[in-house]
Amino acid sequence: MTDINNAIASINEKGFLDIDIDPELDLFAAIENLKKEKNAVILAHYYQEPDIQDVADYIGDSLGLAQQAEKTSADMIVFAGVHFMAETAKILNPNKKVLLPDLNAGCSLSDSAPPALFKIFKEKHPNHKVITYINCSAGIKALSDIICTSSNAQKIIETLPIDQPIIFAPDKNLGAYINKKTGRNMVLWNGSCMVHEIFSLEKITRLKIRHPKAKLIAHPECEESVLRVADFIGSTTGLLKFTKTDDATEFIVATETGILHQMQKASPKKVFIPAPPDNSCACNDCPHMKLNTLEKLYLCLKYEKPEILMDEQLRIAAKKPIDEMLKISAQYGL
Ligand code: 13P
Ligand code: SF4
């Protein structure tokens, strides 16, 4: 497929622009030039492949990325992440062009909460505040009171009175972790992340025996059995900061493998071991995040497609709980 019109027409089916690229082209230089020419910014999540992280203007966790999206002065945002992240950027920037290299880059956690079912669930729990993890669709955000991420969830929950009934969605593992930390009994939606649920406690335990000095660091989307034995639990940014400041020189990392690129760059002398999944697959690579490639990113910046487009009423309804999250995060310096 080389013809741009055919490629654009097939975006709905394939999710990305399928156009041949000259194999001699220096993609890194070409992306830099396009960024300048179009006043575009590339925001990338830590789970993106290393090459994408290396051309990004900002790399961060979900909260950091939303904060950057809110304050950018660029005309165009290329979001190297998954759909709900790019959608959040669009919700915050209705007048900017927001692009996602592959529209099919979804999220199992977000998919676990279809808005129609969630609406019924919410109606069954009147008087509950709905606190929703940012890994959800705009339809779910529009049904929520406050959005949170893994780095501010606890703080946001703690701003509510202790006797306030709460629905927490869609991640049951993060919800259970916050219940434990805050002594609350939030009602949890039964969703989970396919990547963080895959770690094998048995294999981690064996690794710890082989590497007695290594610290186990885990993302709160992991199951309780893994979190229970972790030396440190945090968002991707939290985990990265911990590896920079902690005295340990070896870490077993229970989150998506993309983060290891920044950990290794920041601490070249330290050893980072990806926590093993419960079989021999590469399931601790998020298949959604890894749909984006440097080639797709280049094409998306060059042809300004695929673009995130949204219904304005939905956007306005979904923006309210995001604004609330950003306001609380700013208050607490998060
Ligand atoms: P954070 O970026 O908030 O750590 O979340 C991880 C994740 O799974 C994003 O999809
Ligand atoms: Fe969704 Fe999990 Fe992939 Fe993050 S790592 S995008 S939560 S499936």
**Assembly context of the chains:** single chain
Number of helices: 17
The CATH topology label of the largest domain is: Rossmann fold
Overall CATH class of the largest domain: Alpha Beta
Radius of gyration: 20 Å
Describe this entry's structure for a reader.
This protein has 334 residues and is of the alpha/beta class. The protein has 3 domains: 2-107 and 288-310, NadA-like (Rossmann fold), CATH 3.40.50.10800; 109-194 and 315-332, Rossmann fold; 201-274, 3-Layer(aba) Sandwich (Rossmann fold), CATH 3.40.50.10800. It contains 17 helices and 12 strands. It has helices at residues 4-9, 11-14, 27-38, 50-55, 62-71, 83-92, 108-111, 115-123, 138-141, 153-158, 172-182, 201-210, 224-229, 236-245, 259-266, 294-303, 312-331; strands at 40-45, 58-60, 76-80, 97-99, 129-133, 146-148, 166-169, 187-188, 215-218, 232-233, 250-254, 271-274. It has a 4-stranded parallel sheet, with helices on both faces. Strands 6-5-7-8 form a 4-stranded parallel sheet. It is globular. It starts with a helix and ends with a helix. The model has no long low-confidence stretch (mean pLDDT 96). The protein binds 1,3-dihydroxyacetonephosphate and iron/sulfur cluster (SF4). Iron/sulfur cluster binds at residues 47, 82, 107-109, 135, 193-195, 256, 286, 288-289.
